[in-house]
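Exam revision sheet. Question 4 asks you to relate a sequence to its structure. Input first:
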Amino acid sequence: MNEHVLRNLLNVEAEQSISKVQIFDEIDSTNSESLRQIQSGATENRLVVASSQTAGRGRRGRQWLSPKNAGLYFSLTRSFPLEASALQSLSLVTAISVVEALHELGAAKLTLKWPNDVLYEKRKLGGILLELQLKEATRFLVFGIGVNINLPADSISSIDRPVVDLQSIVGELPTPEALLAALLNQLCRNLYDYERNGFSNFSRRWNELDCYRLSDIVIQNGESRIIGKSLGVGADGSLLVQTSSGTQSITSGEIFPSLHPLS
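Answer key, structure tokens:
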């Protein structure tokens, strides 16, 4: 990864959003490193990129397998004036940004699984982990993104869910700098839009990409389970589910397809 090449590919929004770029050959986790730097007093908006992670993290404490040069792993840190309640919808905006950027690079037929999994034919291509950190009354948000590029066969077999990589989807892989720039350009453009207009410009875009919208689903959240039909997301990014007792607004949990059609 060459910082000079990367910066030459950034649009105005991304260039203004990134004061410092740090590139690692190997690190425990780009998100963990970003959080450590916030706690140590770093206040500038910055980007942490790694060729591999020894302790990559996903949602719900899951490990994100990050073999060397098999994926793109990065975290963008920005100070954010918004309340913590915005985290839900920002997670969806980030996922939309990843899909839109990959579409531009030739990856067609990508879909989304609430709240932020990027899928191709129901197989996971990318994941997102947003983490909020307070430091001396300033609110920082770390946008962690991982995209599978060229997974070794043994890595695919060791992952406990269906996965896919970019190599299997596009005819020719972009350079690491072109891929990262495309993702940053779209993400920063969308974040500026979100800060000005909120989630209203994104709910329709999410619902068009949602692979489970209008499908019968099960939402598992700890020991609780909700069964119903997904109606897509509402104005705040929560998932709307039609159940036997009415429409419920879901803010956390994991989606599974229902094994039986609902009446």
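Marking note for examiners. The longest strand covers residues 123-135.
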